[in-house]
Amino acid sequence: MNALYCRVSTDLQAETGYSIGDQIRTCREHVLELGLETSRSFEYIDDGYSGEYLERPALDRLREDLRAKLIQDVIIYDPDRLSRNLTNQLLLADEIEKAGAALHFVTGSYDASPEGRLFFSIRGAISAFEKAKIRERTLRGKRAKARNGKMIQNGHAYGYDWDEENSTYIINQKEAAIVKMIYDLYLSRKHTIKDIALFLKQQNIYNRKNSPFTLSMIYRILTDEKYAGIKWSFNIYDKKISQYRRQKIVRPQEEWIPIPISPIITSVEYQTVRQILSENKRKSPRNTKQQYLLRNFIQCAVCGYGISAHHKNYSSGKEYTWYKCHSGGTDKSLTPCGNPAISALELDNLIWKHLCRITYSQKELTSILRQEIVLDNTAQLTNLKDYHNQLKKKQTTILRWFNDNILSPDDAEKELQFLKKELQTTFSSISKLSSKTKKGLTKTPEEILAATSFAERRAIFENLGWKVLVDNRQKPVRIRFKI
Protein backbone atom coordinates (compact mmCIF):
# COMPACT_ATOMS: atom_id res chain seq x y z
CA MET A 1 0.00 0.00 0.00
CA ASN A 2 1.17 3.56 -0.76
CA ALA A 3 0.89 6.30 1.86
CA LEU A 4 0.45 9.96 0.96
CA TYR A 5 1.19 12.21 3.93
CA CYS A 6 0.11 15.88 3.76
CA ARG A 7 0.26 18.53 6.49
CA VAL A 8 -0.44 22.22 6.85
CA SER A 9 -0.36 24.30 10.03
CA THR A 10 -2.95 27.00 10.72
CA ASP A 11 -0.55 29.85 9.97
CA LEU A 12 0.35 28.38 6.57
CA GLN A 13 -3.15 27.75 5.22
CA ALA A 14 -2.88 30.45 2.57
CA GLU A 15 0.77 29.94 1.71
CA THR A 16 1.28 29.16 -1.97
CA GLY A 17 2.17 25.54 -2.66
CA TYR A 18 1.46 24.37 0.87
CA SER A 19 -2.33 24.20 0.84
CA ILE A 20 -3.76 20.74 1.55
CA GLY A 21 -5.39 20.59 -1.88
CA ASP A 22 -2.14 21.37 -3.72
CA GLN A 23 -0.16 18.86 -1.65
CA ILE A 24 -2.66 16.04 -2.29
CA ARG A 25 -2.79 16.79 -6.00
CA THR A 26 1.00 16.92 -6.49
CA CYS A 27 1.52 13.79 -4.33
CA ARG A 28 -1.02 11.87 -6.46
CA GLU A 29 0.78 13.01 -9.62
CA HIS A 30 4.10 11.89 -8.14
CA VAL A 31 2.62 8.42 -7.46
CA LEU A 32 1.93 8.13 -11.21
CA GLU A 33 5.44 9.36 -12.03
CA LEU A 34 6.92 6.67 -9.77
CA GLY A 35 4.84 4.03 -11.56
CA LEU A 36 3.01 3.01 -8.38
CA GLU A 37 -0.59 1.82 -8.25
CA THR A 38 -2.91 4.73 -7.47
CA SER A 39 -5.69 2.35 -6.42
CA ARG A 40 -3.54 1.20 -3.49
CA SER A 41 -2.81 4.71 -2.18
CA PHE A 42 -4.05 5.76 1.24
CA GLU A 43 -3.99 9.42 2.28
CA TYR A 44 -2.99 10.64 5.73
CA ILE A 45 -3.99 14.29 6.22
CA ASP A 46 -3.01 16.54 9.17
CA ASP A 47 -4.88 19.79 8.57
CA GLY A 48 -3.99 22.51 11.09
CA TYR A 49 -1.15 20.81 12.98
CA SER A 50 2.31 22.23 13.72
CA GLY A 51 5.29 20.40 12.26
CA GLU A 52 7.34 21.15 15.35
CA TYR A 53 5.83 18.27 17.31
CA LEU A 54 5.24 14.58 16.57
CA GLU A 55 1.76 14.43 18.16
CA ARG A 56 -0.44 14.49 15.04
CA PRO A 57 -3.48 12.22 14.46
CA ALA A 58 -2.74 11.29 10.84
CA LEU A 59 1.00 10.90 11.49
CA ASP A 60 0.21 8.60 14.45
CA ARG A 61 -1.91 6.38 12.18
CA LEU A 62 0.82 6.33 9.52
CA ARG A 63 3.45 5.25 12.06
CA GLU A 64 1.16 2.50 13.37
CA ASP A 65 0.61 1.19 9.83
CA LEU A 66 4.36 1.31 9.18
CA ARG A 67 5.01 -0.77 12.29
CA ALA A 68 2.36 -3.23 11.08
CA LYS A 69 4.26 -3.53 7.75
CA LEU A 70 1.23 -2.31 5.75
CA ILE A 71 3.11 0.45 3.87
CA GLN A 72 5.59 -0.03 1.03
CA ASP A 73 6.04 3.58 -0.18
CA VAL A 74 5.57 6.93 1.63
CA ILE A 75 5.06 10.01 -0.58
CA ILE A 76 5.41 13.50 0.95
CA TYR A 77 5.45 16.89 -0.76
CA ASP A 78 8.53 18.27 1.06
CA PRO A 79 10.69 17.28 4.07
CA ASP A 80 9.34 20.16 6.18
CA ARG A 81 5.81 18.74 5.71
CA LEU A 82 7.09 15.65 7.51
CA SER A 83 8.48 17.78 10.33
CA ARG A 84 9.90 21.25 11.03
CA ASN A 85 12.29 19.76 13.53
CA LEU A 86 15.49 18.23 12.09
CA THR A 87 15.77 15.63 14.85
CA ASN A 88 12.18 14.52 14.25
CA GLN A 89 12.78 14.42 10.47
CA LEU A 90 15.68 12.01 10.95
CA LEU A 91 13.72 9.94 13.49
CA LEU A 92 10.72 9.53 11.14
CA ALA A 93 12.95 8.79 8.13
CA ASP A 94 14.69 6.11 10.18
CA GLU A 95 11.32 4.57 11.21
CA ILE A 96 10.22 4.45 7.56
CA GLU A 97 13.45 2.74 6.52
CA LYS A 98 13.31 0.19 9.37
CA ALA A 99 9.72 -0.67 8.35
CA GLY A 100 11.08 -1.62 4.91
CA ALA A 101 9.26 1.23 3.15
CA ALA A 102 10.67 3.71 0.63
CA LEU A 103 10.49 7.48 1.29
CA HIS A 104 9.74 9.83 -1.64
CA PHE A 105 9.57 13.64 -1.75
CA VAL A 106 7.87 15.56 -4.57
CA THR A 107 10.35 18.47 -4.31
CA GLY A 108 13.43 16.25 -4.50
CA SER A 109 14.65 12.69 -4.29
CA TYR A 110 15.62 11.00 -1.04
CA ASP A 111 18.68 8.77 -0.95
CA ALA A 112 19.03 6.38 2.01
CA SER A 113 22.81 6.17 1.54
CA PRO A 114 25.13 7.87 4.09
CA GLU A 115 25.75 10.69 1.59
CA GLY A 116 22.02 11.06 0.96
CA ARG A 117 21.23 11.18 4.66
CA LEU A 118 23.96 13.81 5.14
CA PHE A 119 22.41 15.96 2.38
CA PHE A 120 18.97 15.41 3.95
CA SER A 121 20.33 16.57 7.32
CA ILE A 122 21.97 19.66 5.82
CA ARG A 123 18.77 20.58 4.03
CA GLY A 124 16.77 20.17 7.23
CA ALA A 125 19.25 22.30 9.19
CA ILE A 126 19.02 25.07 6.58
CA SER A 127 15.22 24.94 6.75
CA ALA A 128 15.32 25.24 10.55
CA PHE A 129 17.81 28.12 10.31
CA GLU A 130 15.59 29.98 7.82
CA LYS A 131 12.57 29.55 10.09
CA ALA A 132 14.55 30.89 13.09
CA LYS A 133 15.73 33.91 11.07
CA ILE A 134 12.19 34.69 9.94
CA ARG A 135 11.00 34.50 13.53
CA GLU A 136 13.86 36.76 14.69
CA ARG A 137 13.17 39.40 12.02
CA THR A 138 9.45 39.33 12.82
CA LEU A 139 10.14 39.76 16.53
CA ARG A 140 12.58 42.61 15.89
CA GLY A 141 9.98 44.40 13.78
CA LYS A 142 7.35 44.00 16.48
CA ARG A 143 9.71 45.37 19.13
CA ALA A 144 10.51 48.42 16.98
CA LYS A 145 6.78 49.04 16.50
CA ALA A 146 6.16 48.79 20.25
CA ARG A 147 9.03 51.18 21.04
CA ASN A 148 7.42 53.70 18.69
CA GLY A 149 4.31 53.64 20.85
CA LYS A 150 2.17 51.40 18.64
CA MET A 151 0.33 48.20 19.51
CA ILE A 152 1.56 45.00 17.90
CA GLN A 153 -1.92 43.70 17.22
CA ASN A 154 -5.53 44.77 17.38
CA GLY A 155 -6.72 44.79 20.98
CA HIS A 156 -10.25 44.18 22.16
CA ALA A 157 -10.14 45.98 25.51
CA TYR A 158 -13.31 46.95 27.31
CA GLY A 159 -13.42 50.73 27.74
CA TYR A 160 -11.54 51.39 24.50
CA ASP A 161 -12.06 51.37 20.73
CA TRP A 162 -9.34 50.44 18.28
CA ASP A 163 -7.61 53.16 16.23
CA GLU A 164 -6.52 51.24 13.13
CA GLU A 165 -4.58 54.15 11.61
CA ASN A 166 -2.38 54.76 14.66
CA SER A 167 -2.41 51.18 16.03
CA THR A 168 -3.52 52.22 19.49
CA TYR A 169 -6.51 52.48 21.82
CA ILE A 170 -8.92 55.41 22.00
CA ILE A 171 -11.35 55.82 24.88
CA ASN A 172 -14.92 54.63 24.43
CA GLN A 173 -16.68 57.15 26.67
CA LYS A 174 -19.73 54.98 27.39
CA GLU A 175 -17.65 51.95 28.45
CA ALA A 176 -15.06 54.13 30.21
CA ALA A 177 -17.82 55.46 32.48
CA ILE A 178 -18.57 51.87 33.56
CA VAL A 179 -14.86 51.20 34.20
CA LYS A 180 -14.73 54.30 36.41
CA MET A 181 -17.86 53.12 38.19
CA ILE A 182 -16.24 49.74 38.93
CA TYR A 183 -13.17 51.43 40.44
CA ASP A 184 -15.34 53.86 42.42
CA LEU A 185 -17.45 51.02 43.82
CA TYR A 186 -14.36 49.07 44.84
CA LEU A 187 -12.49 52.03 46.35
CA SER A 188 -15.04 54.48 47.74
CA ARG A 189 -17.92 52.27 48.75
CA LYS A 190 -15.87 49.21 49.73
CA HIS A 191 -17.80 46.80 47.49
CA THR A 192 -16.40 43.34 46.88
CA ILE A 193 -16.02 42.07 43.32
CA LYS A 194 -19.10 39.91 43.84
CA ASP A 195 -21.05 42.95 45.09
CA ILE A 196 -19.99 44.93 42.01
CA ALA A 197 -21.14 42.15 39.65
CA LEU A 198 -24.52 42.02 41.39
CA PHE A 199 -24.87 45.82 41.37
CA LEU A 200 -24.14 46.06 37.62
CA LYS A 201 -26.65 43.32 36.89
CA GLN A 202 -29.33 45.06 38.99
CA GLN A 203 -28.68 48.29 37.07
CA ASN A 204 -29.02 46.41 33.73
CA ILE A 205 -25.42 47.22 32.82
CA TYR A 206 -24.02 44.54 30.50
CA ASN A 207 -20.77 43.88 28.66
CA ARG A 208 -20.18 44.03 24.89
CA LYS A 209 -21.78 40.64 24.39
CA ASN A 210 -24.90 41.89 26.14
CA SER A 211 -24.20 39.51 29.02
CA PRO A 212 -23.74 40.28 32.73
CA PHE A 213 -20.24 41.13 33.90
CA THR A 214 -18.53 38.04 35.32
CA LEU A 215 -16.32 38.10 38.41
CA SER A 216 -13.25 37.32 36.29
CA MET A 217 -13.95 40.20 33.90
CA ILE A 218 -14.33 42.68 36.76
CA TYR A 219 -11.11 41.35 38.33
CA ARG A 220 -9.26 41.82 35.01
CA ILE A 221 -10.49 45.41 34.78
CA LEU A 222 -9.29 46.12 38.33
CA THR A 223 -5.83 44.61 37.71
CA ASP A 224 -5.01 45.83 34.18
CA GLU A 225 -2.59 48.77 34.19
CA LYS A 226 -3.69 50.01 30.77
CA TYR A 227 -6.66 51.69 32.43
CA ALA A 228 -4.09 53.87 34.26
CA GLY A 229 -2.43 54.86 30.97
CA ILE A 230 0.29 52.24 30.35
CA LYS A 231 -0.11 49.15 28.17
CA TRP A 232 2.83 46.81 28.61
CA SER A 233 4.08 44.98 25.56
CA PHE A 234 6.48 42.02 25.47
CA ASN A 235 5.69 41.26 29.12
CA ILE A 236 4.14 37.85 28.35
CA TYR A 237 4.57 35.42 25.49
CA ASP A 238 2.58 32.38 24.52
CA LYS A 239 4.85 29.33 24.32
CA LYS A 240 3.66 26.19 22.57
CA ILE A 241 4.88 23.30 24.71
CA SER A 242 3.18 20.52 22.75
CA GLN A 243 0.81 20.05 19.81
CA TYR A 244 -2.21 20.65 22.02
CA ARG A 245 -0.88 22.78 24.90
CA ARG A 246 0.29 26.35 25.27
CA GLN A 247 1.79 28.05 28.30
CA LYS A 248 1.93 31.76 29.11
CA ILE A 249 5.45 32.75 30.14
CA VAL A 250 6.23 36.03 31.92
CA ARG A 251 9.31 37.72 30.45
CA PRO A 252 11.95 39.39 32.66
CA GLN A 253 10.72 42.87 33.59
CA GLU A 254 13.66 44.58 31.87
CA GLU A 255 12.29 43.31 28.52
CA TRP A 256 8.86 44.91 29.02
CA ILE A 257 8.06 47.82 26.70
CA PRO A 258 5.63 50.49 27.97
CA ILE A 259 3.15 51.91 25.45
CA PRO A 260 1.40 55.09 26.68
CA ILE A 261 -2.35 55.24 26.01
CA SER A 262 -5.18 57.49 27.19
CA PRO A 263 -5.92 56.70 30.86
CA ILE A 264 -9.42 56.11 32.20
CA ILE A 265 -8.45 56.14 35.89
CA THR A 266 -5.45 57.59 37.75
CA SER A 267 -2.30 55.70 38.62
CA VAL A 268 -2.98 56.26 42.33
CA GLU A 269 -6.42 54.62 42.00
CA TYR A 270 -4.89 51.67 40.16
CA GLN A 271 -2.10 51.17 42.71
CA THR A 272 -4.56 51.49 45.61
CA VAL A 273 -6.80 48.79 44.13
CA ARG A 274 -3.83 46.46 43.58
CA GLN A 275 -2.74 46.98 47.18
CA ILE A 276 -6.23 46.20 48.51
CA LEU A 277 -6.55 43.10 46.32
CA SER A 278 -3.14 41.86 47.46
CA GLU A 279 -4.00 42.43 51.13
CA ASN A 280 -7.41 40.77 50.77
CA LYS A 281 -5.80 37.75 49.13
CA ARG A 282 -3.26 37.47 51.94
CA LYS A 283 -5.94 37.65 54.63
CA SER A 284 -8.52 35.51 52.87
CA PRO A 285 -9.82 32.66 55.08
CA ARG A 286 -9.90 30.47 51.96
CA ASN A 287 -6.11 30.23 52.21
CA THR A 288 -6.38 28.10 55.35
CA LYS A 289 -8.74 25.42 56.64
CA GLN A 290 -7.88 26.01 60.30
CA GLN A 291 -7.75 29.01 62.61
CA TYR A 292 -4.21 30.23 63.24
CA LEU A 293 -3.79 33.33 65.37
CA LEU A 294 -0.33 34.10 64.01
CA ARG A 295 -0.85 33.28 60.31
CA ASN A 296 1.22 35.75 58.21
CA PHE A 297 2.68 37.37 61.35
CA ILE A 298 5.21 34.79 62.52
CA GLN A 299 8.90 34.64 61.58
CA CYS A 300 11.87 32.45 62.49
CA ALA A 301 14.20 34.23 64.93
CA VAL A 302 17.09 31.98 63.84
CA CYS A 303 17.25 32.38 60.05
CA GLY A 304 14.67 35.08 59.25
CA TYR A 305 12.48 32.84 57.06
CA GLY A 306 8.72 32.95 57.41
CA ILE A 307 7.04 30.26 59.50
CA SER A 308 4.07 28.50 57.92
CA ALA A 309 1.05 26.83 59.49
CA HIS A 310 0.28 23.13 58.91
CA HIS A 311 -2.59 20.79 59.67
CA LYS A 312 -3.13 17.02 59.64
CA ASN A 313 -6.07 14.73 60.43
CA TYR A 314 -5.31 11.26 61.76
CA SER A 315 -7.38 8.11 61.14
CA SER A 316 -8.12 7.99 64.88
CA GLY A 317 -10.10 11.22 64.49
CA LYS A 318 -7.48 13.39 66.18
CA GLU A 319 -6.08 16.46 64.43
CA TYR A 320 -2.85 18.32 64.90
CA THR A 321 -1.82 21.86 63.89
CA TRP A 322 1.70 23.21 64.02
CA TYR A 323 4.03 25.99 62.86
CA LYS A 324 7.26 25.18 61.00
CA CYS A 325 10.12 27.30 59.62
CA HIS A 326 10.46 27.52 55.81
CA SER A 327 14.27 27.23 55.79
CA GLY A 328 15.43 24.48 53.46
CA GLY A 329 11.96 24.10 51.97
CA THR A 330 11.79 21.51 49.19
CA ASP A 331 15.38 22.21 48.12
CA LYS A 332 17.43 19.38 49.63
CA SER A 333 20.66 21.32 49.02
CA LEU A 334 19.66 23.91 51.64
CA THR A 335 20.29 23.11 55.29
CA PRO A 336 17.38 23.85 57.68
CA CYS A 337 18.20 26.28 60.48
CA GLY A 338 17.30 23.75 63.18
CA ASN A 339 14.37 25.67 64.62
CA PRO A 340 11.93 22.79 65.34
CA ALA A 341 8.18 22.78 64.69
CA ILE A 342 5.87 23.75 67.53
CA SER A 343 2.22 23.11 68.27
CA ALA A 344 0.07 25.92 66.84
CA LEU A 345 -2.35 25.83 69.76
CA GLU A 346 0.49 25.94 72.26
CA LEU A 347 2.28 28.81 70.55
CA ASP A 348 -0.90 30.85 69.94
CA ASN A 349 -1.74 30.70 73.66
CA LEU A 350 1.85 31.44 74.65
CA ILE A 351 2.09 34.47 72.33
CA TRP A 352 -1.22 35.92 73.48
CA LYS A 353 -0.23 35.60 77.16
CA HIS A 354 3.12 37.21 76.33
CA LEU A 355 1.40 40.14 74.59
CA CYS A 356 -1.05 40.61 77.48
CA ARG A 357 1.79 40.49 80.03
CA ILE A 358 3.70 43.24 78.19
CA THR A 359 0.55 45.32 77.73
CA TYR A 360 -0.65 44.95 81.34
CA SER A 361 2.69 45.78 82.92
CA GLN A 362 3.43 48.77 80.68
CA LYS A 363 0.06 50.40 79.93
CA GLU A 364 1.28 53.97 80.27
CA LEU A 365 4.57 53.29 78.46
CA THR A 366 2.70 51.53 75.62
CA SER A 367 0.39 54.51 75.22
CA ILE A 368 3.33 56.92 75.03
CA LEU A 369 5.16 54.71 72.52
CA ARG A 370 2.06 54.52 70.34
CA GLN A 371 1.75 58.30 70.26
CA GLU A 372 5.41 58.67 69.32
CA ILE A 373 5.03 56.10 66.54
CA VAL A 374 2.02 57.95 65.14
CA LEU A 375 3.81 61.33 65.16
CA ASP A 376 6.90 59.83 63.55
CA ASN A 377 4.81 58.03 60.92
CA THR A 378 2.95 61.24 60.05
CA ALA A 379 6.22 63.01 59.17
CA GLN A 380 7.48 60.07 57.13
CA LEU A 381 4.13 59.77 55.41
CA THR A 382 4.20 63.42 54.31
CA ASN A 383 7.69 63.02 52.83
CA LEU A 384 6.75 59.82 51.01
CA LYS A 385 3.60 61.37 49.53
CA ASP A 386 5.59 64.39 48.31
CA TYR A 387 8.12 62.07 46.65
CA HIS A 388 5.30 59.99 45.12
CA ASN A 389 3.76 63.16 43.59
CA GLN A 390 7.15 64.16 42.17
CA LEU A 391 7.49 60.74 40.53
CA LYS A 392 3.98 61.06 39.02
CA LYS A 393 4.79 64.48 37.56
CA LYS A 394 8.02 63.12 36.09
CA GLN A 395 6.16 60.16 34.58
CA THR A 396 3.68 62.53 32.92
CA THR A 397 6.54 64.65 31.59
CA ILE A 398 8.34 61.61 30.13
CA LEU A 399 5.15 60.48 28.35
CA ARG A 400 4.63 63.99 26.95
CA TRP A 401 8.23 64.20 25.72
CA PHE A 402 7.87 60.77 24.14
CA ASN A 403 4.64 61.76 22.32
CA ASP A 404 6.29 65.00 21.14
CA ASN A 405 9.35 63.04 19.85
CA ILE A 406 11.63 64.95 22.22
CA LEU A 407 12.72 61.74 23.88
CA SER A 408 13.75 58.58 21.99
CA PRO A 409 11.75 55.36 22.51
CA ASP A 410 14.71 53.63 24.20
CA ASP A 411 15.32 56.48 26.65
CA ALA A 412 11.61 56.82 27.39
CA GLU A 413 11.36 53.08 28.04
CA LYS A 414 14.29 53.11 30.49
CA GLU A 415 12.89 56.10 32.37
CA LEU A 416 9.38 54.65 32.56
CA GLN A 417 10.71 51.30 33.79
CA PHE A 418 12.64 53.05 36.58
CA LEU A 419 9.66 55.25 37.49
CA LYS A 420 7.31 52.25 37.58
CA LYS A 421 9.53 50.44 40.09
CA GLU A 422 9.96 53.59 42.21
CA LEU A 423 6.22 54.30 42.20
CA GLN A 424 5.42 50.74 43.25
CA THR A 425 7.99 50.84 46.07
CA THR A 426 6.87 54.26 47.27
CA PHE A 427 3.19 53.38 47.11
CA SER A 428 3.80 50.18 49.07
CA SER A 429 5.68 52.16 51.75
CA ILE A 430 2.87 54.74 51.94
CA SER A 431 0.26 52.01 52.32
CA LYS A 432 2.19 50.21 55.05
CA LEU A 433 2.93 53.45 56.92
CA SER A 434 -0.67 54.62 56.64
CA SER A 435 -1.80 51.26 57.95
CA LYS A 436 0.59 51.44 60.89
CA THR A 437 -0.49 54.98 61.71
CA LYS A 438 -4.14 53.95 61.81
CA LYS A 439 -3.30 50.87 63.84
CA GLY A 440 -1.47 52.96 66.41
CA LEU A 441 -4.57 55.10 66.96
CA THR A 442 -7.31 52.44 66.98
CA LYS A 443 -6.19 49.91 69.59
CA THR A 444 -5.66 50.64 73.25
CA PRO A 445 -4.06 48.42 75.92
CA GLU A 446 -7.53 47.98 77.47
CA GLU A 447 -8.89 46.57 74.19
CA ILE A 448 -6.02 44.10 73.94
CA LEU A 449 -6.57 42.85 77.50
CA ALA A 450 -10.34 42.56 76.98
CA ALA A 451 -10.16 40.42 73.81
CA THR A 452 -11.36 36.86 74.39
CA SER A 453 -12.58 35.39 71.08
CA PHE A 454 -10.34 34.22 68.26
CA ALA A 455 -11.81 36.86 65.90
CA GLU A 456 -11.05 39.68 68.37
CA ARG A 457 -7.50 38.51 68.99
CA ARG A 458 -6.83 37.96 65.27
CA ALA A 459 -8.15 41.47 64.52
CA ILE A 460 -5.74 42.90 67.12
CA PHE A 461 -2.74 41.21 65.47
CA GLU A 462 -3.85 42.44 62.05
CA ASN A 463 -4.27 45.92 63.47
CA LEU A 464 -0.88 45.96 65.18
CA GLY A 465 0.94 44.51 62.16
CA TRP A 466 3.77 43.29 64.39
CA LYS A 467 5.99 40.37 63.48
CA VAL A 468 6.44 37.63 66.08
CA LEU A 469 9.96 36.17 66.12
CA VAL A 470 10.13 32.66 67.57
CA ASP A 471 13.10 30.49 68.60
CA ASN A 472 12.05 26.99 69.71
CA ARG A 473 15.52 25.44 69.87
CA GLN A 474 15.55 25.67 73.66
CA LYS A 475 12.90 25.53 76.38
CA PRO A 476 11.19 27.75 77.26
CA VAL A 477 10.44 29.13 73.79
CA ARG A 478 12.08 32.49 73.17
CA ILE A 479 9.68 35.14 71.79
CA ARG A 480 10.05 38.78 70.80
CA PHE A 481 7.88 41.25 68.91
CA LYS A 482 9.15 43.22 65.93
CA ILE A 483 7.22 46.48 65.51
Walkthrough of the structure:
The protein has helices spanning 20-33, 57-67, 79-82, 86-98, 114-147, 173-187, 193-202, 215-223, 267-283, 344-361, 363-403, 409-442, 445-450, 454-464, and strands at residues 2-8, 41-47, 73-76, 102-105, 160-163, 168-171, 230-233, 236-240, 246-250, 257-260, 298-300, 307-313, 319-325, 342-343, 467-471, 478-482. With 483 residues, the protein is of the alpha/beta class. It has 3 domains: 2-140, Resolvase, N-terminal catalytic domain (Rossmann fold), CATH 3.40.50.1390; 160-283, Hect, E3 ligase catalytic domain fold (Alpha-Beta Complex), CATH 3.90.1750; 298-482, no CATH class. It has a 4-stranded parallel sheet, sandwiched between helices. Strands 11-15-16 form a 3-stranded mixed sheet, with no helix packed on it. A hairpin with a 6-residue loop joins β15 (467-471) and β16. The longest helix has 41 residues, at 363-403. It is extended. It starts with a strand and ends with a strand.
Task: Give the count of structural domains.
Answer: 3
- What is the makeup of the main sheet? 4 strands, parallel
Helical residues, percent: 40-55%
Globally, the shape reads: extended
Averaged pLDDT: 79
Kindly estimate the percentage of residues that lie in beta strands according to DSSP: 15-25%
Number of helices: 14
Class computed from helices, strands and strand pairing: alpha/beta
Radius of gyration (CA) equals: 32 Å
Task: Write the element-wise H/E pattern from the N-terminal end onward.
Answer: EHEHEHHEHEEHHHEEEEHEEEEHHHHHEE
Low-confidence stretches: 12-17, 364-375, 437-442
Please tally the β strands and state the result.
Answer: 16
Strand line-up of the largest beta sheet? 2-1-3-4
Taking the alpha carbons of the first and last residues, their distance comes to: 81 Å
